[in-house]
Design goal:
Structural class: alpha+beta
Largest sheet: 6 strands, antiparallel
Number of domains: 4
CATH topology of the largest domain: OB fold (Dihydrolipoamide Acetyltransferase, E2P)
CATH architecture of the largest domain: Beta Barrel
Helix content: 25-40%
Distance between the termini: 70 Å
Number of strands: 24
Radius of gyration: 29 Å
Number of helices: 13
Amino acid sequence: MDKRMLINAVEPEECRIAILENNVLEELYIERSSREQIAGNIYKGRVVNIEPSIEAAFVDIGLKKNGFLHVSDVMPPTGGESSDIDVHNRHRRELYRIRDLLHQGQEVLVQVTKESIGSKGPSLTTYISLPGRYLVLMPGIPRHGVSKKITNEEERQRLKKILEGLNPSPNVGFIIRTAGEHQTKKEIHKDFHYLIKLWKNIEKRSRNLNPPAPIYQESDLVIRAIRDIFSTDIREIVVDSESVYERTRDFLRVTMPKYEKHLTLYSEDKPLFHKYNIENEIENINRRKIPLPRGGSIVIEQTEALVAIDVNSGKFKEESAPEETAYKTNLKAAKEIARQVRLRDLGGVIVIDFIDMREEAHNHDIEKTLADALKRDKARTKMLKMSKFGIIELTRQRIRSSIRDVLFGECKFCQGTGYTKTIESLCLNAMRDLKFVMHLPQISKVEIIANLEVANYLQNQKRKQMIEIEEFYNKKINIFSTNNHEYGRIEIRYLDNKDEPVMI
């Protein structure tokens, strides 16, 4: 498999990282200097408000919006608890109340788990986790484990023995990450000492600063990608910025010296992302309809509540039977949906409406294909079985805004609906407004200012009705057009006999 990591960092305002498999874009990450990234940051905060009705607290961490801290993300005074690996599986909502754990004015050390999205502030946790290359350090959780994605039992036992030999302090836990598979004891020990030193510095800084204050800032996108995304099957890391290349090389020398040879500085005249046709993929990232190979398509609708995905067979038809057509289309769709979810960084609830199939075995195949395709996702996902209506529901971890929200802004004409009123609707509404106030005696004449297209419609298709309104109320109506006027806005000015504006 030909797998590459491409780092486009020639523009100081934006860094983009693409993962290609056989020249197909599989993952995309974008970070802009204008949008502060705070996920993973650690702050010393102060509790400003307790909300017992939702069992949560709001914490001032020095940002515009207070952070949201749910009771399930507050470590009890006795310390944390953990399973073999999944420290996020904490069911304590009935054991603790937020008022038992926190009070207004209390100082707390918190980590951002989710960026501010829309009107919501960042989500916080007191369960601190510090990721290294091969380990994750968890202060206050004295348990050790191995990533569930490492399935070989012999390897799991080997890694557990290495963990036991680390001899950390009794109140610090560690998890061996997926990247730690087949790593030597020396490499894991090196990562261990680095994380211990980092945590001691965080503790020291936390003691010396008053809240609200930043304590630890997560690494930038390039370093995070090398640390979290890079895998041994990536045969080449291509960087188009000399300064970023040098910084990446230095990081590799310290953390993974044997992989430094994978790093390449791109020096061709043709831009890096253009060479691999990634720019076209990015331009289509907000496209609703995605065609499937040999026919069929998927349609993605992103809403505030959830993401709805519909699968269509289109013109794709199998000679054998409709069942076979639906089955083959759904198989292709399941793989592409998993890819699009990763590319667009879609989070929250995702509902997929597959083409109806009668055979139970086919439904199971689609479930398995989708589940297998989702396994490669770095974000946590949970998937339910297909319903009798051919619908699969899943949730995907939402850490930051989707790629769409980074690249696109809300349309000022349709406010994000994707629809604008027709010319006929706009003009009918304007005429209704006229009739509503034209009887007022202080009004002598009216001026209508609109986009050229709308103004032409009023002067031609609605000319008869406009004359009738003039004659009925005995008041002059003048229509003006301008190319600079927004399509969906019709401005109506009411004037008295001295051409002074009349306030309605």
